[in-house]
Write a structure and sequence with these properties.
The structure holds two protein chains of two kinds. Chain A is an alpha/beta fold. Chain A is built from eleven helices and ten strands. Chain A has helices spanning 48-54, 79-85, 102-112, 117-130, 146-158, 176-193, 204-207, 227-230, 234-239, 246-256, 268-275; strands at 5-15, 21-32, 37-42, 63-68, 71-72, 86-89, 164-168, 196-200, 212-217, 220-225. Chain B is α/β, with parallel strands linked by helices. The chains are: A alpha/beta, B alpha/beta.
Chain lengths: 276, 293
């Protein structure tokens, strides 16, 4: 399979006050295939967001290369096309909304791309339908809940028809119902639209819905596998400053008490099912 | 410091088409040394309430008293200084150009001696798990989301308040960062008898730290009671747009399947003990409270 994102020998450093540099990525080699659903976990400062910002050229390598569908992000001639292919959704929806109605906000990208009005209309309607906000076209975004604002931000990204969306902790500011709605949307975009998803999260429970989990530590990728394999390694995750999904943690403690439970119980429902 | 909230109402943009009643008559009292969690879905009024505690908003009606003095009154500056609030969005409070200067800002404003200021800054950075040597010179806006949040928390801690109000303190922190931060704050709370008010969506985390939970829904108090009681009430929580903690969800699923288990067990180790007992394995388990981490 042709890789969607290919990263070779990627390094990135940030400046300190006084002219020194602090390394954030120290040699990343990574391939993400089209249609994958990848969760990116790691402690604060491990380099998750820095890495993800290389996927659409928001950051450019200090050393090494990043290709998106064969386009080198550091080639200025490709930057526009790279950004069309990979959209980014950030943690705080308040900082991502710019217009006075939902549809204007979603239209912002396509308008800037200079698309004809019919095309813009079609893309806005399509994007709002994908996130389930088609009835909110004329609402002012500031009147929406945090979760709805985040859905508007996602629709704004989808209106560019990206092949891949990077979600950088999209739920950490949201309450449980909004969180569920965002995650359902993310899952649907991947499963039904075939959109490649990179989900950065501090919630191991959220990471468990991906098909592949990457764990980062000090600017390197140190674990890479399906959730059931990665979350079997509790000790290792703890050493990385991470943890287990709650159901996996309870299952681990039950096994310590001598209960025989099958591996790969990632959710409370699965654990309850195995116990009954 | 005694906190009294009496019939507090707050309407944003009153008299305009955007008028929005965020609080509709909230009454509660928080006594010195309590550990209280405030929960509720987005828009339930949590953040508005804590901003009133910090004297940042003027009540539309009702009042908020800090040791008997109105929280928002100019004359209550002395009381307000005893209460520190760390905001939900750290970027709303951070403005200095190095981490050290940011954390020192509050103590400097208190007119403290240089030694005292630098002592407090190193202590506060250590409490939030940041290395002063490595991080002190960093420019706050080049920090990761989790690091920025730690800086905001350190700034609140450096005030050495009697009342510490943390609005979603662990959103965006990594799991170990969450455990350590809450562990340190909880130990410090016990040591000095701090009043700790935590606003959080993460009920599993709250269950480890607080003893009392105030549940807000639609700007009103929907429940106010012991943590075990409020956070195991599935019907109440779901009606208020929240989820029960994971251990409670598991025990409820087992209970529904006919198991003889109590469902008001909020921590993983408590749920495990309950399941083991129901299975007749009868092994007593030691707890590992967040304080012993």
């Amino acid at each position: 399979m042709k890789p969607f994102i290919k990263v070779r020998g990627l390094e990135h450093a940030y400046p300190l006050e006084g002219g020194e540099w602090v390394p954030a990525l120290q040699g990343i080699d990574l391939t993400i295939g089209p249609g994958e659903f990848v969760a990116l976990i790691g402690s604060n400062g491990s380099g998750k967001s820095t890495l993800a910002r290389h996927f659409n050229g928001l950051l450019l390598p200090t050393a090494g290369e990043v290709w998106v569908e064969g386009l080198l992000t550091s080639d200025p001639r490709h930057l526009w096309e790279v950004r069309q292919r990979v959209g980014m959704v950030f943690q705080n929806p308040e900082n991502q909304l710019v217009a006075s109605t939902v549809e204007e906000d979603v239209a912002f990208g396509p308008e800037n791309a200079g698309l004809p009005p019919d095309e813009i209309r079609q893309r806005v309607d399509e994007a709002l339908a994908l996130v389930g906000l088609q009835d909110y076209c004329t609402h002012p975004p500031q009147m929406l809940s945090g979760g709805q604002k985040q859905l508007v931000a996602i629709a704004g990204v989808l209106a560019a028809r990206p092949a891949c969306v990077v979600f950088d902790e999209p739920t950490s500011m949201l309450d449980p119902p909004s969180r569920r709605r965002i995650l359902d949307t993310v899952r649907r975009l991947n499963a039904e639209q075939g959109i490649t998803v990179v989900l950065i999260t501090q919630s191991m429970d959220e990471a468990a819905i991906a098909n592949r989990v990457l764990a980062m530590h000090e600017g390197r990728i140190v674990m890479d596998g399906p959730p059931r394999d990665v979350f079997e390694q509790g000790e290792r995750l703890r050493a990385l400053g991470l943890g287990l999904p709650p159901a996996v943690e309870i299952a681990r403690r039950l096994r310590e008490q001598g209960l025989a439970l099958p591996p790969g119980l990632l959710t409370v429902d699965a654990l309850a099912g195995a116990l009954c | 410091m005694l906190i009294q909230v009496e019939n507090l109402a707050h309407t944003y943009a009153p008299g305009t088409p955007l008028a929005h009643a965020a609080l509709r008559g909230v009454s509660l009292q928080i006594t010195p040394g309590e550990r209280v969690g405030i929960v509720g879905r987005t828009g339930s009024g949590k953040s508005t309430l804590v901003q009133h505690l910090a004297g940042l908003l003027k009540p539309t009606s009702g009042r908020v008293l800090l040791d008997g003095a109105a929280a928002h009154a100019r004359s209550s500056a002395a009381q307000r200084r005893k209460l520190a609030l760390a905001f939900q969005y750290p970027e709303h409070q951070i403005f200095e150009h190095t981490v050290l200067r940011e954390v020192a800002f509050g103590p400097r404003n208190l007119g403290l001696a240089k030694d005292e200021i630098s002592g407090r800054v190193s202590w506060a950075l250590e409490m939030v798990g940041l290395d002063a040597e490595v991080m002190g010179a960093r420019v706050p806006f080049t920090l990761s989301g989790g690091e920025m949040r730690r800086v905001a928390l350190a700034s609140a801690l450096a005030m050495r308040p009697e009342v510490l109000v943390l609005d979603e303190p662990t959103a965006g922190l990594d799991p170990q960062g969450r455990r350590e931060l809450l562990g340190r704050v909880a130990r410090w709370q016990e040591e000095i008898g701090l009043t700790l008010i935590l606003v959080s969506h993460d009920l599993d985390e709250l269950a480890r730290v607080v003893e009392r939970v105030v549940l807000l829904d639609g700007g009103r108090v929907a429940a106010d009671g012991p943590v075990r009681q409020v956070l195991s009430d599935g019907d109440l929580l779901r009606a208020s747009g929240l989820d029960v903690p994971y251990p409670v969800a598991l025990l409820q699923a087992l209970h529904d399947a006919g198991w003889d288990v109590r469902t008001d067990r909020l921590l993983p180790q408590e749920a495990v003990a309950e399941i083991v007992q129901a299975r007749g394995m009868g092994i007593a388990l030691g707890g590992d409270d967040v304080r012993s981490d």
